[in-house]
Structure formats: structure tokens, C-alpha cells
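Take a minute with the sequence and C-alpha cells given here and flag any C-alpha cell that looks odd. Thanks in advance.
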Amino acid sequence: MQYYREKRRYDRHDNVDELQVSSDNQSPTRVVLLNYSKAGVYIKSPRYLAPGAPVNLAADEHLRDKVPQTCKGSVVWCSFVAGKRPHFRAGIRFFQDHDGTN
């Protein structure tokens, strides 16, 4: 059996909740937060988010201890998921690392 070295700098924490994502050229969209780390988030989105695009994230008050309430980030990757309910999944990196406090 072959083992692979973890390449991520920070631990990931699973969480299913909602965030709001917006960009300069698109209106805000509610997305599902699938997991988070000090450096970014992994989301499920109803729309495509272009890699490299800057985005604004807004979390509800109850997520304040997990992710910044508002922050800016950049889409690292985005892929389509087919099925009964087609959607996109994306990784967003915060512009600065956050420790969960504002």
C-alpha cells in the first residue's frame, strides 16, 4: 500500500453550512460550505466560479468562530459535478490566512 504525504498547510474541518459568495461582476449567491481551514474553504455552488477570480465571502454570525465573518479570497479551482442535482464544487483561498477571529 502506498501512502501520500499531506500537501496542505492547515488542517481541514468538515462543516455543512451556508455562506454567501459574490464577485465584482456577479450578484451574491448562497453556497454550501463543505469544509474550511485557516487558509480557505471548500464549497458547493449552484454556479461556476472562474479560477483566479477574486470573490467576497460573507458568513452568518453563528459561523464566526470557524471562518471570518467577511473576507476576500480567490477561486483556486472549480469543477462540475453531474447527477440528479448538478452543481459545482470549488476551492477558495483567503487572501490572508485567518485564525478564526476578526
Summary: Residues 31 and 66 are 16 Å apart (CA to CA).
